[in-house]
Every structure is written in structure tokens, then in C-alpha cells.
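Figure 2 data, in text form.
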Amino acid sequence: MTHKNGRLFRVFWPKTVRETIKKLAAQANLAGKVKELAAALRYFERRLSHEPNEVGEIYRKAGHVIEYLAAENPLSINFAVDTRRSVVVVRTAHLMGSP
């Protein structure tokens, strides 16, 4: 579902998260999971821009900001949704099963 006013959500992957994903891609390459990682990233980008409040599990609410944890094999992410501004910020990314 798009935002209640019909707008899509803007999704931000901060530089630190993008750098982490590059490192995760190298790990995924060694594990033979690059295609799966790419598919998970496409999944999250699509879902977070269209229906972020339907992705993952809520772990905190503060006013109009809702924080979530979500997983799509082999990637897990932590993200926040600002429902007032229609913005999603991905805060962290991890390969599942990695330290």
C-alpha cells in the first residue's frame, strides 16, 4: 500500500549502510549468495518505497516514527519510517548467519 495520500515513500540508504552492503556483497560472493543478496536488496527497495509499514516487525514507536527489523534471506535490515514525511531510512544491514 502506498502512503495514505497516494505518494510513494522516499527510501534513503545512508553512505555507511551502502558501504556495509559493499562489504556484505564481498562476503556473499565468497558464500555463493550474490544473486540472493541482490534479490533481497531489490525486494527491500520495492517494498520500502511502496508499503514500508507492511515489512518486518515493529520494535519501537515514537510519535510518527516507527522502527522495524526485517529479513529477506540472506539480508536483515533495521529501518525507520517517518509516516508524516513519507520517508524511510535504512539504518543497518547484515547478512543473516554472519557475526
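Caption note: The CA atoms of residues 8 and 22 lie 26 Å apart.
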